[in-house]
Design goal:
204 residues; mainly alpha; Arc Repressor Mutant, subunit A; Tetracycline Repressor, domain 2; 2 domains
Amino acid sequence: MARPHQALLSRTQIADVALALIDREGRFTIPRLADELGVHPSSLYHHVSGRAEIVELIRDRVADSITNDRPKPTAWADYVADWIRGYRAAFAAHPHVITLLTSQTVVADHTIAMYENVALVLEDAGFASDVLPVISILESYAWGAALDLVAPEIAWTPDLPRGTPLARAIANAPIGRERADAAFEIGLALLVTGLQERLRHRQA
């Protein structure tokens, strides 16, 4: 008698479906993931050790979309700015994963390789003991900017008394993606300029 058909699983498929669940429902559980894949929960453990490993697969899945090739001869500030733009775009596509990924120690191979490239650029630039703090600052900025990118198109209520500073600011500013992009680029320029100034002081 033929055995019943069972969906073939792979680690990539598990990560993709878990990420899709998070995008759609804001979270995933092992039973819900197994149901979505059409398998028994125990079947997942033939491919992953548990929830923590699935989270790391998701981390690598998101990191895969961030362009972060081995640094070529270029200004460190340009490299860092391009990385942060890609980081923001990657997490804006999956904003619900930010809290999930920040709750767990990073061990995912591709993600670690990404950080290694950034650390190399910053170390070569002369940041020395500031390398890890700078990475943390850049990453925090990218996460916040990613969330801002998916904020409501009208971020502040228009029902404000006329003539107040906030009312004038809202009236004179773009809305939606245009506002978020403008704010991001201003912030990124200020951040990079501040890091350049800090580096000059260190090297003086």
